[in-house]
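#onboarding

Welcome to the new folks! Below is a worked example of what a typical request in this channel looks like: someone posts a single protein sequence, and someone else replies with the predicted structure as tokens. Don't worry about understanding the tokens yet, we'll cover that in week two.

Example request:
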Amino acid sequence: MIVEIPNTTVPKISKKLQELRDTGGVVALGRVLTLVIQTDLDHVEAAIKAANGASRLHPSRIIVLADASESESADQLDAQIRVGGDAGASEVIVLKAFGDAATNTESLVTGLLLPDAPVVAWWPSACSPAPANTAVGQIASRRLIDSALQADSKAFLAQFAKNYQPGDGDLAWTRITLWRAQLAALFELHKTRTVKSVTVIGSSSSPSADLLAMWLGLKLGVRAHVNNKVQQVEVQGIYGVEVEFEDGHLSVTRPDQVATIRQTGAPDSSVLLPRRSDQDCLVEDMRFLGEDEIFGEVLRGFASK
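Example response:
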């Protein structure tokens, strides 16, 4: 069910939510957190779809701040409430603030937060490289950005690293969880070997490739390089990882959803290594609301460059 509330206020939205609970059986019981999404109008529906999917494992109240401040419409706040089949295991409140009504985003959100529940903020489009210093970021214990969606992802990642605060997260980092898990398992088989060189094969515009290279370099004690091409052709995303030991080699290459593993001392093998969706990343990031210490360590590597 979708309820439109044009030209409204935050108290009126709260009252309407209460009416929906009383008359339609819509309840907020069992909601474990509030997810605040701040994005532009073009990314609203995709963000809601991903958040609704994630809410099936993390039932949430989802508040979407759709940036409409530059619209020619009069100063006002329009709202939309989605419940039931249109909201997954959540209740979704979409706020479109026009003109001066958009100047105080914190006041738009605070009156709609679930009481005594953690707040996660997510920016699924262009955002500040210092999310903890934003109005929404200051009320959230977990702040998720996506460096891959920024105009200059490498420059953004460098700035984000300098402004990092515990609780900050990046979907570009979460996308490589499966890579890190697979590589960590493989390195257990070669822990007695000395690493000579590490190469990550990934797109020049992929911060995930840069993050994976930094992580590998920190863990293996050598500087990992990023190669953007395979047979002179620019790759997309992360294509693979190649490691040279003093007495052998290890490579994991993924041209599609299945990766091929070639390593000294073992026959070739394959493993499913699918590309992760925003929903997959949200599910993981909403599972743990504390500081990601490994991510913080990796970002400090960028900040010290």
